[in-house]
Structure formats: structure tokens, C-alpha cells
Design goal:
EC 1.2.1.9; binds NADP nicotinamide-adenine-dinucleotide phosphate; alpha/beta; 2 domains; Aldehyde Dehydrogenase, Chain A, domain 1; Aldehyde Dehydrogenase, Chain A, domain 2; glyceraldehyde-3-phosphate dehydrogenase (NADP+) (non-phosphorylating) activity
Length: about 475
């Protein structure tokens, strides 16, 4: 039951452990070591000591390690998915989908390890460059520290561990406390690969203490954080010259234009709004529907919602279950009540039954209601009508966030206009903003973060460009 820290390839016990319970069954799932400042410093130092071992690996050796890891996840697919489902109440079907993506993410990392390359610079394009030959190299930066959230405990960790190792760096991982069991499973799999000891280290405990120790340690070259904006922005403000990537939250929106065959898009809308109980950074939170299709949209949407199966996350037929904690569920419920007091109408849901917040649709929500302008991170979606595409684009842009946005339309002109005007990191034409595959560039603007993930793009963040100039004069 006791889960220790991993430093330099060895499990390290601590004086204090924290009990963690399953959100749905409430069973005790593990006792996780609470790292002290000294433990965290030693984890960083063990990662630092391993940088020379990582530097000796060739590209193909790094690729093989990541390939081994991808294959191990494929071999242990069901076990890895069951752990996610147990610790985070992610319905098993989505947990299996997450492991399938994790397998691919490490595979992409293995492939990118072989493509780490610079470029030739045409020096003689400048009068002062004649007779000179130059090229760039991408070099690993050293120790990377990663802090990850609960909602994708394997795949979002893979988006940090994969590119860090592909580029020849070492890493200290601090997973979300609620989902540290998945991080331990990853550690067990990595121990079966040829990765040098100390290249991957695992610390658990207080996010604040661990984050502050990462910030203070001179050997840490980068902090890559996925989580809530408040924590991410505070880390960046104190990071000095350390590199920082922030993948933060959003209140993602979609536009539904007139003329779209609604029956073809309903499954995607339901998945976008309610998968993993809406606890997805690009969960569909705001729907702007052209006013002439509202009635038909609401009818088809609510019909689909009644087909969702609520229950135990470990049941493979379950679509929706309890949120990560009762506190979070109560917060979301309070925001729904607030919106109703501010004039919104509940179309369906809006209640907690058997410890599950029912899939909730709110209509006619003022833009200043928290369910609209903040990140709800719950199975709650709002629908407002618009009479023009410009109005819809303006409504989506009226947000502090900008991760991804979607638009369903049959008009090329409208799609093109939306792609240019939406202020987000990614525009998805004819799908929900919740769409993501793991090699695409991914990251937000505004309070949704800074820096990109998607293996190739994360590797750019996790390497330094070095220039070499030969003077042949
Ligand atoms: P969170 O509360 O910010 O936690 C994220 C991580 O930060 C956890 O490991 C947490 O540790 C740690 N942490 C907490 N306080 C800290 C501090 N003061 N200093 C350093 N680390 C600290 O977020 P969450 O509830 O797990 O995840 C939900 C958020 O993540 C949402 O806003 C969501 O949109 C965002 N997210 C973004 C993306 C993306 O790619 N853009 C993807 C997924 C999620 P403990 O667990 O120990 O508290």
C-alpha cells in the first residue's frame, strides 16, 4: 500500500505518507510518500547526475528506450487503464482510450528522438557572411521538472516524460496526488527499459513545497506544468531564467452554424461536453447556436443525453460518473445555482444524484456568470443563441482563455473567417474543441498558457539551439 519516492532508480521511504481514496468507491488506494524539501533537492541532484549518462546515449538508444516503454504500455493496457479509472473515476472506456493514446505518445517520442536536428544557415546571404559555413544543433537542457494534473494521469505525463527523454534530458516528475498511482505504474514500466538510473525520478507530496523547491534549485533548467491557471501563473512569475511551459485551463466554445446536419454532430457534442465528467482542459463548455436551429438542437441534444449511462467508472459501459472529489462537485453545483439566479434556465440536469452531478445543460446564460466566463471543469455546458457568425466569434473571444475553439458550418467562407478571427491556440473546423491527437501542436493563448506540447513542439521547448560557424576564409 505504501508508495515511496523514486530517486536515482531506488525507492526512498519518508517519515510521512498521505492516504488517497478512490473518488467513486471511496476505498483506500494508496499511501503516498510526502517528500521533504531535502528529498526533492536530492531527486533534482540525482537527475542532474544522470545527465552525463543520458548524454552518452545515441539517438537510436533513446528511441529504443521509448519504444520499449510504448510496448510495455501496450502489454499492460488493461491494467494501466484500470488504475486510472480507480484513482480518478475516469469511466473505463475513456481510461482505455487514454492508454491507447499514451502508447502512441511514447511511440511519437521514440520517432522524434531520431529526428532531433538543426538546420544549415545560408551565411553568404549576408555581405559579412562570405566564406563562412554555419549550422544549428539542438542540445538537451539538462534537468526538467514536470508537474501534472489529475485528469489525464498517463497521457499528460507522457507529454512531458516522452519529449524530455527523447531530447536526452533527465526529469523529476511530481504527479497530482490523487493520481500518483499511475505515476508509480509508469516508474515500474520504466524500470524494465534500458533507461539509465536517475534519468527519471518521482516525487509526491505537497505541490507547493515541491514546486517551490523546483523553482529554487539552480540545477533545474525547466518547469513544465499542466494544471490550473492560478498555480501555473504563480510558478512562471517566480521562475527567473528557467524555461517554463504552461498548459492551463479554458472555457472552450463551439459555434453551430445554420444548415449543419445536426444529427451528424450530436455524438461529438455530447462527447466534447461530458467525457471524463467535463474534466478536460478542452471540454466543450460553451455552445453558440444560430437562433433558427435552436429548437431542433436542444431536442436532439437532450435526447442523446438521456442515453448516457451513469454509474461505476470501472463498468465498461459507464459513460459518466462522479467527479474527482465531492468538494469539486459541490463547487460546480454552486456555480449552476448562481447562473440560475442570474437568469439562466436549466434544460436538463442541475442536480447531484447518488454522488454524481447529472450532465447539465444551461440555456440563456449571462456572459458574466461563472459557468460561462470561468472554467467549470464539470459535466456542465451552456447554450446561447446568436444571430450572426460575427456575434458567435465575438462571444467565444470574450474570454480570458484561448485554448481551442470549434465551428460546425457548411460554408467555406465562414470556416475561413472563423479560423482567422478566433483568438485561440487551435481552431477545429467541423468538430468540437475537445479534439486532440498527440503529435499536433497544442497549447493556448491568453490565460490558457504559454509554450506548445505535441512531441515535436515540446522537444523544441526542451532543447537549446546552438549555433556553430566555420570561418573558411
Ligand atoms: P491543479 O490543482 O493546478 O494541480 C495540478 C498540479 O499542480 C498537481 O500536481 C498539484 O499537486 C500541483 N500543485 C498544486 N498546488 C501547487 C503549487 N502551489 N505549486 C506547485 N504545484 C502545485 O490542477 P488540477 O485540478 O490537477 O487539474 C485541472 C486543471 O488543469 C484545469 O484547469 C485544467 O484545464 C488544467 N489542464 C490543462 C491541460 C492543458 O493541456 N492545457 C490539460 C489538463 C488539465 P496536488 O495534486 O498535490 O495538489
Amino acid at each position: 500500500m505504501k508508495k515511496h519516492l523514486l530517486l536515482n532508480g531506488e525507492w526512498r521511504m519518508t517519515d510521512q505518507y498521505l492516504d488517497v481514496y478512490a473518488p467513486y468507491s471511496k476505498e483506500l488506494i494508496g499511501q503516498f510518500a510526502i517528500a521533504t524539501e531535502i528529498d526533492v533537492q536530492q531527486a533534482i541532484e540525482s537527475a542532474h547526475a544522470a545527465t552525463s549518462k543520458m548524454a552518452m546515449l545515441t539517438a537510436i538508444q533513446r528511441a529504443q528506450i521509448l519504444e520499449q516503454l510504448s510496448n510495455l504500455f501496450a502489454e499492460h493496457r488493461e491494467e494501466a487503464a484500470t488504475i486510472i479509472s480507480l484513482e480518478s473515476a475516469k469511466p473505463l472506456k475513456y481510461a482505455v482510450a487514454e492508454i491507447d493514446r499514451t502508447i502512441e505518445t511514447y511511440k511519437f517520442a521514440a520517432e522524434e528522438a531520431k529526428r532531433l536536428a538543426g538546420e544549415l544557415i545560408p551565411m553568404d546571404a549576408s555581405k559579412g557572411g562570405e566564406g563562412r559555413f554555419a549550422y544549428t544543433l539542438r542540445e538537451p537542457i539538462g534537468v526538467i521538472t514536470a508537474i501534472t494534473p489529475f485528469n489525464f494521469p498517463q497521457n499528460l505525463v507522457a507529454h512531458k516524460v516522452g519529449p524530455a527523454l527523447a531530447a536526452g534530458n533527465t526529469i523529476v516528475l511530481k504527479p497530482a496526488t490523487q493520481t500518483a498511482l499511475s505515476a508509480h505504474f509508469l516508474a515500474k514500466l520504466l524500470a524494465q527499459t534500458d533507461l539509465p538510473a536517475g534519468a527519471f525520478n518521482l516525487v509526491t507530496g505537497s505541490g507547493k513545497l515541491i514546486g517551490d523547491t523546483f523553482l529554487a534549485h539552480p540545477q533545474v533548467k525547466m518547469i513544465t506544468f499542466t494544471g490550473s491557471p492560478a498555480v501555473g501563473i504563480s510558478l512562471r512569475n517566480r521562475a527567473g531564467l528557467k524555461k517554463v511551459t504552461l498548459e492551463l485551463g479554458s472555457n472552450a466554445g463551439v459555434i453551430v452554424d445554420g444548415g449543419v446536419p445536426l444529427e451528424n454532430i450530436m455524438d461529438r457534442i455530447v462527447m466534447g461536453a461530458f467525457s471524463n465528467q467535463g474534466q478536460v482542459c478542452i471540454s466543450l463548455q460553451r455552445i453558440y447556436v444560430m437562433d433558427n436551429v435552436l429548437d431542433s438542437f436542444l431536442k436532439q441534444f437532450t435526447e442523446k443525453i438521456t442515453q448516457l449511462k451513469l454509474g461505476n467508472p470501472l463498468d465498461p459501459t459507464t459513460d459518466l460518473t462522479t467527479m474527482i472529489s465531492e468538494t469539486e462537485q459541490q463547487r460546480a453545483y454552486t456555480w449552476i445555482q448562481e447562473a440560475v439566479n442570474e437568469g439562466a434556465q436549466i434544460i436538463t440536469g442541475g442536480r447531484i444524484e447518488n454522488n454524481i452531478l447529472l450532465p447539465t445543460v444551461l440555456y440563456n446564460v449571462p456572459s458574466h456568470s461563472r459557468v460561462s466566463c470561468e472554467e467549470i471543469f464539470a459535466p456542465v455546458v451552456i447554450i446561447n443563441t446568436v444571430s450572426t457568425i460575427d456575434e458567435a466569434i465575438e462571444a467565444i473571444n470574450d474570454s480570458n482563455y484561448g485554448l481551442q475553439a470549434g465551428i460546425f458550418t457548411t460554408s467555406i467562407e465562414t470556416a475561413f473567417k472563423a479560423s482567422k478571427k478566433l483568438q485561440v491556440g487551435g481552431v477545429i473546423i467541423n468538430d468540437v474543441p475537445t479534439y486532440r491527437v498527440d503529435h499536433m501542436p497544442y497549447g493556448g493563448v491568453k490565460d490558457s498558457g504559454t509554450g506548445k506540447e505535441g512531441i515535436k513542439y515540446a522537444i523544441e521547448e526542451m532543447t537549446e539551439m546552438k549555433l556553430v560557424i566555420w570561418n573558411n576564409n
